[in-house]
From TrEMBL:
Segments for region (Leucine repeat II (LRII)): 355-387
Domain of life: Eukaryota
Family: Belongs to the GRAS family.
N-terminal signal peptide: none
Region of interest: SAW: 493-567
GO cellular component: nucleus
Claim: Ligase is one of the keywords in the record: no
Basic and acidic residues composition-biased segments: 143-153
Motif (VHIID): 305-309
Cell location: Nucleus
Protein name listed in UniProt: Chitin-inducible gibberellin-responsive protein 1
Length: 567
């Protein structure tokens, strides 16, 4: 089977609508939310002003429901609506693309990628080396006039060639560290530079870190007047950063999760927001393509495959892989999928793991491949070997996609559940383990540095959303509020076991996996080339680089998502 034949095979050939699967940056669990004692209604720019009440903070008595450390260490990882239903959000996001054929590549490329990896061993795929270097993303030039927040700044996908980086980005990392040091040295209220919202937000955080409450209150008042959920990326992000700072000031310890009164949308509504985020940004597509490609390549000659998916959500990530395996030369293998999930994802999915089993059964019948499903409804740190039903003669693949950072490490629990989970997985002798994580350093970083890191990381994401959705778009507001804002607040406001958003850079993950006994596998150059081609459908500012055996996807000079494979 040559490459031309492989690329003639697509999802539509199975007469099945393409439905993407994606975890979002997870939300805070609804069960952990409670009333907050402060008034947001007075601020017209408060992103939660229509959702918060101003009741006094409920007393946190001994009768309050308690949760085990493991129970609060996972969060919402929902997927798209039913695999076999047409999702109007996907069609709406498709209309945002200027080039229809480019969008078709996005919808079919993962299947084509996996099918190619199922081809005989003598098939060879090569990719040209990228030559362009990315430029550094400048800091925000300052706050716009308030009238800008009500203007329509509609924008479309750009079709320019994306920037690709093939070396390491050490120099830009050094520059970023130096900038952060300068930001931390900025004087407080008296010498505050005008018209610089980014610096104003950092000054607020510094005043709070130093317990200078008078300065904090004055700076916060200025920040509230400067932010807007309809403004520039820094203004929109600033609205949620401000709420995080207030939540940190007003709550502490076990009460911190009660800092938000923002009502959860219904399951279907939440999924539609996440579907839209998945379609307009390539970050999550990238993670799934890299992970599925690594699994397909490692198991290309296996007759029996067992996939353990930590936080399976709706399970629709596996649709294209199963279809590719079904079309594999020599016949389809027997596939067993163990889906680990928690009650929070059950809420987002709208039901238990039996729903996932039914969807996989439909895939099995449609594609003509034997698929066996086993659901494990527990939090990841509570998984035991006995729950996984390991059988001899099966090629085992373990998938961690934007999930492992929710498991606490040694800084939170003496037992170090994060490394313990990796050791458990290694003891199973998997043929391949895939890891996709946010490329951010928020785990053990002190508060002020963590605030600056969060500001830098999410500003890149908000800028990338700005390329696709207009400033006054209700869809954009919903995506940012329900898919991103609560995680921002969790990182800023929470400490200890209540802070579940604990990201680490790839270098740290590499150390953890190596200490657990894993050896890194190089990712396929073919996977790399397909992802590069798909980035052309988005913006010239998306970057792809290879570093230490991993692939990193970013926006301008900021890496955002890392993908790696291990055995």
């Amino acid at each position: 089977m040559d490459s031309q034949q492989l690329f003639s095979f697509g999802v539509t050939s199975a007469e099945l609508p393409y439905m993407s699967s994606f975890p979002t940056v997870p939300s805070l669990p609804n069960r952990l939310l409670g009333p907050l004692k402060y008034d947001t209604g007075n601020s017209p720019n408060s992103p939660f002003s229509t959702h918060f009440d101003s009741d006094t903070l409920s007393a946190l008595s001994d009768s309050q429901e308690q949760y085990s450390p493991g129970e609060i260490l996972s969060s919402v990882t929902p997927f798209c609506n039913s695999l076999l239903e047409t999702n109007h959000y996907m069609h709406r996001s498709i209309s945002l693309l200027q080039n229809a054929s480019c969008n078709q590549k996005i919808k079919h490329a993962l299947l084509e990628l996996e099918t190619a990896l199922m081809a005989p061993d003598d098939d060879e795929f090569t990719t040209s080396k990228a030559l362009a270097e990315t430029t550094s993303r400048p800091m925000a030039s300052g706050q716009r006039d308030r009238s800008w927040s009500h203007e329509n700044h509609g924008s479309q996908y750009t079709q320019n060639q994306p920037s690709y980086v093939t070396g390491n980005r050490q120099s830009s990392e050094v520059v970023r560290v130096e900038k952060r040091q300068k930001l931390m040295e900025e004087p407080s209220l008296q010498a505050f530079p005008p018209n610089n919202l980014k610096q104003l937000l950092i000054s607020c955080a510094r005043a709070l870190a130093e317990n200078s409450m008078d300065d904090f209150d004055q700076l916060l008042a200025k920040a509230r007047d400067a932010v807007s959920i309809n403004g520039e990326p820094i203004q929109r992000l600033g609205a949620y950063m401000v709420e995080g700072l207030v939540a940190r000031k007003e709550a502490s310890g076990n009460s911190i999760y009660h800092a938000l009164r923002c009502r959860e949308p219904e399951g279907d509504e939440l999924l539609s927001y996440m579907q839209l985020l998945f379609e307009i940004c390539p970050y999550l597509k990238f993670g799934y393509m890299a992970a599925n490609g690594a699994i397909a390549e490692a198991c290309r000659n296996e007759d029996r495959i067992h996939i353990i998916d930590f936080q399976i959500a709706q399970g629709s990530q596996w649709m294209t892989l199963l279809q590719a395996l079904a079309a594999r030369p020599g016949g389809a293998p027997h596939v067993r999928i163990t889906g680990i999930d928690d009650p929070v994802s059950k809420y987002a999915r709208g039901g238990g793991l039996d729903i996932v089993g039914k969807r996989l059964a439909l895939m099995s019948e449609k594609f003509g491949i034997q698929v066996e499903f086993h659901g494990v409804p527990v939090f990841a740190p509570d998984v035991t070997r006995e729950m996984l039903d390991i059988r001899p003669g099966e090629a085992l693949a373990v998938n961690f996609s934007l999930q492992l950072h929710h498991t606490a490490d040694e800084s939170v629990h003496v037992s170090n559940p994060r490394d313990g989970l990796l050791r458990l997985v290694k003891s199973l002798s998997p043929k391949v383990t895939t890891l996709v994580e946010q490329e951010s350093n928020t785990n053990t970083t002190p508060f002020l540095l963590r605030f600056i890191e969060t500001l830098d990381y999410y500003l890149a994401i908000f800028e990338s959303i700005d390329v696709t959705l207009s400033r006054d778009s209700k869809d954009r507001i919903n995506v940012e509020q329900h898919c991103l804002a609560r995680d921002i607040v969790n990182i800023i406001a929470c400490e200890g076991k209540e802070r579940v958003e604990r990201h680490e850079l790839f270098g740290k993950w590499k150390s953890r996996l190596t200490m657990a006994g894993f050896t890194q596998c190089p990712l396929s150059s073919y996977v790399n080339s397909v992802i590069r081609s798909l980035l052309r459908c988005y913006s010239e500012h998306y970057t792809l680089m290879e570093k230490d055996g991993a692939m990193l996807l970013g926006w301008k000079s900021r890496n955002l998502i890392s993908a790696s494979a291990w055995h």
